[in-house]
Amino acid sequence: MAELPKAYDPAEVEDDLYRDWEQAGLFHAEPDDPGEPFSIVIPPPNVTGSLHIGHALTNAVEDAMIRHAKMHGKNAVWVPGTDHAGIATQNVVERQLEEEGLTRHDLGREAFLERVWEWREESGGVILTQLRKLGCALDWEREAFTFDEPRSRAVREVFVGLHEQGLIYRGYRLINWCPRCATALSDIEVDHEEVDGEMAHFVYPYADRDGGVEVATTRAETMLGDTAIAVHPDDERYTEMVGRTVTHPFFDRELPIIADEHVDPEFGTGAVKITPAHDPNDYDIGERHDLEVIDILTDDAVVNDNGGPFAGMDRFEARRAVKEALDEKGLLREVEAHTHQVGHCSRCGTVIEPRLSEQWFVEVRPLADKAIAAVHDGRTRLIPKRYTKPFLEWLENLHDWCISRQIWWGHRIPAWYCPDGHVTVARDDPDECAECGKGELTQDEDVLDTWFSSQLWPFTVFGWEAPGDTTPELETWYPTSILETGYDINTFWVSRMLMIGLWFLDEVPFEIVWNHGMVRDAEGKKMSKSFGNVIDPLDFIERYGADALRFALFQHCSPGQDVPLAEEWVEGGRRFANKLWNATRFALGTLDDTKPGGLPDADDLTLEDRWILSRLAAVRERVDGAYERYEWSIIAQSLYHFAWDELADWYLEAAKVRLYGDDETARQTARQVLAYVLERLLRLMHPVMPFLTEALWRALTGEPGGERSLMATEWPSEAGRSDEDAERDFAVIEDLVTQLRKFRSQNDVAPSKRFDVRLVTERAELLDRQRELVTSLAGLSELEFVDAVADDAGVAKIVFGAGEAYVELAGLIDVEAELARLEKELGKAQDDLERSQGKLANDAFVENAPDEVVQQERDRSSELERVIREVQEQMGALRELA
Q1: Which of 462, 831, 873, 881 has the largest count of CB atoms under 10 Å?
Q2: Beta partners for 236?
């Protein structure tokens, strides 16, 4: 049997084990492999990305799912790949060009794209290499990229197909515009952040009388494009004004006063300036009232010629200048501080501008209705259920999707224009205009939103390129079994995959959407560089091992709940790995040539054997149930408790009586049970901690690895033997031994010091049968059963569930030395309590410190009070002896 090193060093085993698994083909699956199909597609990380803690959680969970499925004999595949990340990737390469004093326009489109592809080949996809460090059992032979040839053909097919169905169209609409990236953005690419801004109040003079209408705006420069003033039709203050006009302060332009129910009469003066080209609500009002639409900004957010005297100014410079000009005309009433939500580009952080632009759109209503129906009838379920309602609300209120982007890196829109302005949309590059036959065609400069291609991911990775396509992979693994992702991406990605999968394949792309929460720090704060609490998973893997990080994440991972993480918890994962390593190392030193196999006859089993086998059956059942509910925290905590508390701390100690004894039959029974339990535990733990368990399993079984690896074994669907009697009886021994150990610890009795115990108990028959076990576990010299013990200051009474234990203190404890030690411990605890209570009595501390800090101090104070009471009780008992 293999001999393990004294300490577990993840760096010595993890890379070699992963290489062995991969070379043995254990990650790969084929459609005709035996077993029920099970499939997961990785949420494709951006090709620009590197492994962050959110990726670590997502992929650790998916890896556990796929390993668990494989061990259940399923034909399981987990498809890897990356997203070409249009704007993000282009930004990376453009920053490189900036350092060289160049822009993409200096290179031209073709040369720039060559440069991006070069970057992608050299630096893109680093995260996929990093996922190997985490232990991910991805089928690398199936690696895909949202911009590779198969995916590109599918993207063009979907675009053309939707266009032929009238669901993709080109038109002028108000969109989100990023001046920095110089592109349109969809609603989900805009982050709304609360900022400290302003509200400028100014007056539009009436055209035919004195006075005017006061309005207010957070963007004073947009008044250059105002074309109306709107009031609520029921607002009596303005009833007589509707139909009149006001004059624009800077242009020869009159603005009508209109009535529209969208106006909130309670906000401000009840009169609202309308800028149809630069506000979505104003645009809708403009549509209803046929207002003129005046765009005042260029692509880079500079005021254009429509801004008159303010032309050429940056939008923020124009904001200041417009207010100054209004003030000079006596029209500015006030500028007040105003906190409000402002949209920012999710890629670069620039404040976005709503502006009118000609773009390509998807009419989403028919697609969304099919997705809504699939959720309602249960074909796709969201876990936890509470995310179903907001998911459906999102789909029910979805606006048409702006899919064109004014960048170069991405799927170029398959639309061509002839000199007469006709548009030809085609699957293959056309030679002539489909409408007039002219041959001088120019392809649309725009590319598609990255989400347009990533929405096709669940079926294009299995070979779909056009309607009617079928492949063995598609027939076997689509729809996928489960989609695991963060709840924050449900609207970004999940909804789009559901809509398009149903539309083109008439099947949902996944049966279950399992949402995990966000990884936060130990106090629940979002991880942020500004907070200084960002955790680098690769750093933790290097220092503590992948399994330690995985286990720390699993311990707090429940459906939909945010996952707290602290370095000390990863350290705890490493300590747990060491505990299991040392337990196995001890077992290997006692098993001789005994390999894991069947169990001895029931008649040969001792109480501790029956108990550990019953606990193994219980933990297996609990873990199986938690897998069905995807309760990772229950899985991790259940395995931790069994491995550390029950197997290592109790069973191994109990089995030593036989393992080191002279009865060879008893020794062999203990060996067989220990090997059996340990091997089943390693199988149960493998999906959660794959590297550690694989290394220990090979040492325990003598298997060589490769195709005969732990990850290729069967799940222990039956393990142990349920035995309520054994659990009830062993609980009595646990209780007695625990209280005796507590007595030893409280009174500073050395572990090597043995002493006699007299018992008054209703379970005398049981404890007498287990006399050797109890004396060994508690470190006793003798166990005597009596009917009663007289009160005596020299005797300590130890209460346990089934009775009392009595210990003679004389000669066991140095009373004076123990009193001196306890006196010192009491003084320190009292000083600490005084300081703690002083902090809690300080109103400034209670009012200003974070709630969790105040609660920690209250908990500390309560704990110190408990310690003081216990020490005083111990001292009182000892003084009676003195």
Answers
A1: 462
A2: none
Joined together, the tokens standing for residue 333 give 């009433």
Question: What span, in angstroms and rounded, lies between the C-alpha atoms of 379 and 373?
Answer: 9
Could you identify the residue written with the tokens 């995310």? 387
Alpha-carbon torsion (783, 786, 788, 792), positive or negative: negative
Average pLDDT of the residues in 698-711: 96
User: What's the distance, Cα to Cα, between the start and end of the chain in Å?
Assistant: 56
Strand order of the β-sheet with 353-362 is: 183-185, 168-178, 353-362, 401-402
User: What are φ and ψ of residue 253, in 5° steps?
Assistant: -145, 130
SS3 label, residue 362: strand
Q: How far, in Å, CA of 829 to CA of 546, rounded?
A: 40
Is the model more confident about 78 or about 488?
78
**Which residue has 């004894």 as its token pair?**
661
User: Alpha-carbon distance 664 to 654, whole Å?
Assistant: 16
Give CA–CA dist 496/239, Å, rounded.
Answer: 46
Task: Determine the distance from the C-alpha atom of residue 92 to the mean position of all C-alpha atoms in its chain, rounded to a whole number.
Answer: 25
DSSP 439-468: ---EE-S-EE-HHHHHTTHHHHTTT--STT
Distance, CA of 21 to CA of 26 (rounded, Å):
6
Among the ranges given (373-377, 381-385, 526-530, 569-573), the one the predictor scored with the smallest mean pLDDT? 526-530
Which of 67, 16, 36, 5 has its CA nearest to residue 710? 67
Distance CA 168, CA 503 (A): 14
pTM, full prediction: 0.87
Q: CA 742 → CA 34, 669, 730, distances in Å?
A: 55, 31, 18
Distance CA 28, CA 44 (A): 18
Take residue 545 and report the two structure tokens written for it.
């091992």
Q: What integer pLDDT is reported at residue 71 of this predicted model? A: 98
Strands 512-516 and 483-486: parallel
Cα–Cα distance measured from residue 13 to residue 287, given in angstroms and rounded to the nearest whole number? 67
The mean per-residue pLDDT over the stretch 817-825 comes to 84
Q: Where are the alpha helices (DSSP H) in 39-108?
A: 53-71, 86-99, 104-107
Residue 67 pLDDT greater than 60, yes or no = yes
pLDDT recorded at residue 693: 98
Alpha helices in 486-594 (DSSP H): 495-505, 537-544, 546-555, 567-590
How are beta strands 212-217 and 190-205 bridged, if at all?
A: antiparallel
* Average pLDDT over all residues of the chain: 93
Beta carbons within 10 angstroms of residue 380's beta carbon: 24
Q: How many CA within 13 A on the CB side of residue 124?
A: 25
Could you tell me the two tokens for 646? 């029950």
Tokens of residue 72, six digits = 């259940």
pLDDT of 512-543, one tens digit each? 999 988 888 777 787 766 677 778 899 999 99
Helix, strand or coil for residue 352? coil
Distance set, CA 264 to CA 121, 235, 472, 736 (Å): 55, 9, 58, 73
Say which DSSP state 757 is in: E
Q: How far apart are CA 540 and CA 837, in angstroms?
A: 38
d(CA 452, CA 55): 22
Within 549-676, strands assigned E span: 563-565
**Which residues lie closer than 8 Å to 416 by C-beta, 6 or more apart?**
423, 424, 425, 426, 429, 430, 433, 441, 442, 443, 444
Q: What is the largest CA-CA distance in the chain?
A: 115
CB 545 within 8 A of CB 501: no
